[in-house]
């Protein structure tokens, strides 16, 4: 079996090339064994399979939330609308209780579903893969839903290091 060749670029060039790909923005939420609500912003979300219904996302191994996400049986992927940039920034940067003043409901497994999310996926933490400096989480979707006006609402998108909404072509 042939192995990969060493990269012919530096980390800055890699990051610049990756920034050309527009991604949706999510907040992944869960509940620690202590009851504390945990949430992080992630743009590394993708569908994997329709049968069974599987999705994936990744988290940096150095993340303070890693032990909780690795150990928990469930989490929720909340897809953000363009109007929810404040939530994106809160769950990416706020230290302390990121849920303070954030409206949410409890899903069937007790995990937080953010009010106003464009869509949400309540997942069983099916498998985890350590790859490079991240862990890839594969979730088996047990329940999902979408905003009642989802067809009219622009998603929050990240590209070129900036946030955007999108409009149909």
UniProtKB/TrEMBL annotation:
Q: Which SUPFAM superfamilies match?
A: FMN-binding split barrel
**Which InterPro entries does this chain map to?**
Flavin_Rdtase-like_dom (IPR002563), NADH-dep_flavin_reductase (IPR050268), Split_barrel_FMN-bd (IPR012349)
GO function terms (MF aspect): FMN binding; riboflavin reductase (NADPH) activity
Q: What are the residue boundaries of the Flavin reductase like domain, all occurrences included? A: 18-165
The UniProt keywords, alphabetically, are: Oxidoreductase
Task: Name the family.
Answer: Belongs to the non-flavoprotein flavin reductase family.
Entries under PANTHER family matching the protein: FLAVIN REDUCTASE, FLAVIN-DEPENDENT MONOOXYGENASE, REDUCTASE SUBUNIT HSAB
What is the name of this protein?
Putative flavin reductase-like protein
- What's the source species' lineage? Bacteria, Pseudomonadati, Pseudomonadota, Betaproteobacteria, Burkholderiales
């Amino acid at each position: 079996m042939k192995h990969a060749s060493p990269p012919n670029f530096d980390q800055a060039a890699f990051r610049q090339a990756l920034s050309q790909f527009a991604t949706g923005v999510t907040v992944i939420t869960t509940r620690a064994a202590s009851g504390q609500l945990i949430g992080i912003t992630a743009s590394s979300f993708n569908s994997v399979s329709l049968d069974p219904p599987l999705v994936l996302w990744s988290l940096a191994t150095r993340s303070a939330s890693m032990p909780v996400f690795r150990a928990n049986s469930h989490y929720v992927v909340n897809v953000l609308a363009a109007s929810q940039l404040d939530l994106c920034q809160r769950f990416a940067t706020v230290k302390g209780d990121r849920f303070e003043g954030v409206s949410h409901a409890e899903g069937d497994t007790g995990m937080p579903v953010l009010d106003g999310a464009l869509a949400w996926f309540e997942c069983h933490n099916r498998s985890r893969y350590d790859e490079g400096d991240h862990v890839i989480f594969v979730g088996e979707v047990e329940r999902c839903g979408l905003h009642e006006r989802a067809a009219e609402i622009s998603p929050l998108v990240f590209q070129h290091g900036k946030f955007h909404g999108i409009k149909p072509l």
